[in-house]
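name: query_chain
kind: protein
chains: 1
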Amino acid sequence: MTLDDLPALARGCAILGTGGGGHVETGVLKAAKAIAEFGEVPVVPLADVPPDGLILPLSGIGAPTVGHEMLMSGEEPVLIRDEVERLFGRPVAAVMSSEIGGSNGVSPVAWAARLGLPLVDADGMGRAFPEVQMVAMYVAGRPVNVVVLADVQGNLTTIRPVDGLWAERIARAVCVACGASALMADYVLTGEEARGSVIEGTVSAALAIGAAVLNSAEPLNALREALDATVLINGKVIDVERRTGGGFVRGSLIIEGTGDDRGRLLRVEIQNENLIALEDGRLRASVPDLITVVDAQTADAISTESLRYGQRVAVLSWPCDPIWRTERGLATAGPRVFGYDIDYTPVEELTHVRP
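structure:
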């Protein structure tokens, strides 16, 4: 990963962030500074990690609005790495993003550079999700073993939860105590344990998505084709309701159709990420499929905390990784998990369903 790769990576991660994962702009600044100071970062396939090599999954946890304003010190990954090596009694072999979406997809470049380690071409989600247990490792049945959090003040917290659900409860409470923003490692795996338990190729995928947008004279069409996505609506943001509390950003937005979509209204529900898209009370798309709001002209993703009245946008949706469509995947991150009385329907089956 070089300085020249960062613009494409950032755009791709922002798209995969489905509105969450933190601002890519701060991630790019951290990554550029770390590459300049510590050197370029090797990106390696999971197959290149030794079977007994420790993989350190890292991500920021908390409300994206806070993380954008309260920047990390840069020493958090060192504190976490040192603690993990002390607990496991051997060195960490590689860094991995816990979620490829948003800043959590870009910042691992900085964390890997700071630690002098390669970055694995994989992550735990294939997108962004708001809760700790919403990772492929949990769906695959891997034990959470240990969670380590570090904050900007230098506090280090080690948790040994009994399962992923308790990991979310306790880590979220610690995060709130840290000011609603911290760096976290969880589901520390060996190379052998990671095989079949993570989503591979996602760093490369983010780069390819970003490059498709950057290199096209018609970025929205290029993005739709790169993702094989459905455009749910083209229109204008006419209402945004957003609040921060409990370590999350929650709310909704309403988009009024323009052009060929004039007369239509689409409502998107938010919890850090875009969760549900409804039109006249009918489901158009839902988690775990991806829903992203982008600028109608540039196809740049708009994070949930950056949505404003009057923005001209398009809303795209496309299929999630197959692991999320399994029974355990839907029980972990399907619409009912977020409190919606809705059964999951794949977005491709909803494509031609209009009120």
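note: The first strand starts at residue 43 and ends at 44.
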